[in-house]
Write a structure and sequence with these properties.
Blueprint lengths: L2 H30 L3 H20 L3 H18 L7 H21 L10 H7 L18 H16 L9 H27 L6 H25 L1 E3 L1 H18 L2 E7 L4 E3 H22 L3 H6 L5 E11 L2 E8 L6 H10 L11 H6 L22 H10 L3 E7 L3 E9 L4 E9 L2 E6 L3 E8 H4 L5 E4 L2 E7 H5 L9 E9 L2 E6 L2 E9 L13 E6 L5 E5 L1 H19 L1
Parallel strand pairs: 2-4, 9-17, 12-14
Antiparallel strand pairs: 1-3, 4-5, 5-7, 6-7, 8-9, 8-15, 10-13, 11-12, 13-14, 16-17
């Protein structure tokens, strides 16, 4: 394929990807209230993609779209009625085209297999049939396709971010101002000898700081993306699962305009999807249960995003059965996840569902029951410096509150000294800082008794330089909580708090599990950001293996 043809295909894929987003939105609207306006809009999208794909040589895409277009035309002309099976077909076509276009960005000759799709929805004459044609199975070919799509996603994860021209123009204007300011500074310095230009130099330097700050803020804004970009995917996940489970669920979406860093948004997709699927599967009751509870037969899930301080809160609320505290405690004890449950608060009991291996499902389904999921949600959120809280009333519903930073580029941090070197620790994993005498620590073996609770203890000297000699008789101890595990970590000295700008390190540091990034310290020197989550997780894995070996 020539360079010109490749450019045409890329341009088509950019446009078609946007059209597919609208395709999915229209399908969700059709499910709520089928109307001529939505059908006409869906037809225009299908017709547009069909014509454009053929124009750039992707004839197979046009051929596939043609089958879908015929069904839309029959609906528009009132020759057939809209139903759940047609909706399923439209959504299935959307998934095929999404994967197809993804691979085409890397392999322009790729033809996505859709024979099984045709067998499910069309007869031999390629006419849509309203009955289930064949039972679907996950075969080797499907697995091969999914692996191919995933491999392309991994390659394209650093795809260029689309931004508005207004933002780019603003950045260019600021860069122009910076260029002018630099010229002023240079001229001032040249004229400084023999003339009193101190005030001009100082004013120029101040202007430089101001412009640099504005440039950073503008560039930072280029990464900010509305959370509404994932709302449609979450609504789709809710609707798809509710149809499979035979439940009627209404979805309410609020705060779609709230913005966060695209890196965080991408990482949020999987945990949020898992939470809403759990709300559909575990939270919302079936029709009979809701009738018995004098509830509306239509359940409701509300997703709300709020800008709070320097971060964002995402609330996911359902009006289902709520969490059963007694059942959670029984399962946690049964699985050996907790031993002493006395004194646990309501919130702490709810927090047990985030422990690895926890599940209250009575049977294994494709949604739940394998003991994985919510612990992965917690782990992912901790990776992006996020937190999650649960509020639930039995019989009334459950609310998840997720608190995340707007960006991973700047983190509130604590600067500490270890073996005369300075390190940076993200504050979000720290619960408390206490000063402890070494003589009290030596009374116990690798543990610290904090307010009556025995916590595993390790000094960062053992992690970073394998030294155990301390410079003072009193050391600060950081009480942390990671993946539900509390631990005490010792340092030599606390230097102070700082807002650290995170920098990616070279691949050399990939070998160290304890380092997550770099930054510039207030002194102007480089510093390393410690991965406290990884340190705690590795230590608890060590303790687990040690206990297993001694058992």
């Amino acid at each position: 394929m020539s360079e010109l043809d490749l450019e045409l295909v890329t341009s088509f894929l950019d446009e078609a990807t946007d059209l597919l987003t609208e395709w999915e939105r229209l399908c969700l609207l059709l499910e709520k209230a089928p109307g001529a306006q939505e059908l006409n809009a869906l037809f225009r999208i299908a017709h547009n993609i069909k014509g454009s794909s053929r124009a750039v040589g992707l004839n197979e895409v046009g051929e596939f779209i043609h089958f879908i277009e015929d069904v839309i035309v029959s609906l528009k002309d009132n020759k057939s009625e809209f139903n759940a099976r047609k909706l399923k077909m439209f959504l299935g076509a959307h998934l095929i085209l999404s994967d197809w276009f993804m691979v085409l960005r890397m392999e322009t000759s790729y033809v996505h297999p859709y024979e099984d799709f045709l067998k499910e929805f069309f007869n031999e004459e390629k006419v849509f049939i309203d009955e289930q044609a064949v039972e679907q199975h996950e075969d080797e070919k499907g697995e091969e396709v999914s692996q191919k799509v995933q491999s392309v996603k991994n390659v394209l994860k650093d795809e260029v971010l689309r931004v508005s021209t207004k933002k780019i123009d603003g950045l260019l204007n600021l860069i122009g101002e910076l260029s002018i300011q630099q010229s002023i500074l240079e001229n001032s310095m040249e004229s400084l000898m023999g003339k009193n230009q101190d005030s001009l130099v100082i004013s120029s330097l101040n202007l430089g700081r101001k412009i640099t700050k504005e440039i950073y803020s503008t560039a930072f804004g280029l990464r900010m993306t509305p959370v509404g970009g994932i709302y449609q995917r979450l609504e789709r996940a809710i609707k798809d699962l509710s149809r499979d489970l035979g439940k009627s669920i209404e979805v309410e979406l609020n705060g779609s305009e709230v913005e966060i860093d695209k890196t965080i948004l991408d990482k949020l997709i999987d945990p949020l999807t898992h939470i809403v699927r759990n709300s559909v599967d575990h939270g919302i009751e079936n029709d009979q249960e809701r009738k018995n509870a004098n509830k509306s037969l239509v359940g409701k899930i509300t997703i709300t995003s709020l800008k709070e301080g320097d971060g964002v809160e995402i609330h996911i609320k359902d009006d289902g059965k709520g969490l059963n505290q007694k059942r959670i405690l029984e399962k946690a004890i049964e699985k050996g996840l907790v031993k002493n449950t006395e004194g646990l608060t309501k919130e702490e009991i709810f927090g047990l569902i985030f422990l690895p291996g926890f599940s209250t499902a009575e049977r294994v389904t494709n949604v739940s029951g394998r003991g994985v999921g919510m612990d992965v949600v917690m782990k992912t959120l901790e990776e992006i410096n996020g937190k999650i809280f649960i509020a639930s009333d039995e019989g009334k519903g459950t609310k998840f509150k997720i608190v995340i930073p707007t960006s991973l580029s700047i983190v509130d941090s604590l600067i500490v000294s270890v073996a005369q070197e300075h390190y940076v620790l993200p504050i979000n994993v720290l619960q408390e800082v206490v000063d402890v005498r070494l003589i009290d620590l030596k009374k116990h073996d690798s543990v610290y008794v904090h307010r009556g609770e025995v916590l595993p203890f390790i000094h960062l000297r053992e992690v970073l330089c394998e030294e155990k000699e301390f410079e003072t008789s009193i050391i600060p101890i950081l009480v942390t909580k990671v993946h539900g595990n509390r631990m005490a970590i010792g340092v030599d000295k606390i230097i102070g708090q700082h807002q650290s700008v995170v920098r990616t390190l070279s691949t050399y540091f990939d070998r160290s599990f304890a380092i997550s990034g770099g930054t510039i310290l207030p002194s102007g020197e480089p510093g390393l950001i410690l991965n406290i989550s990884a340190i705690v997780e590795k230590y608890f894995n060590f303790l687990m293996k040690k206990n297993e070996a001694s058992a």
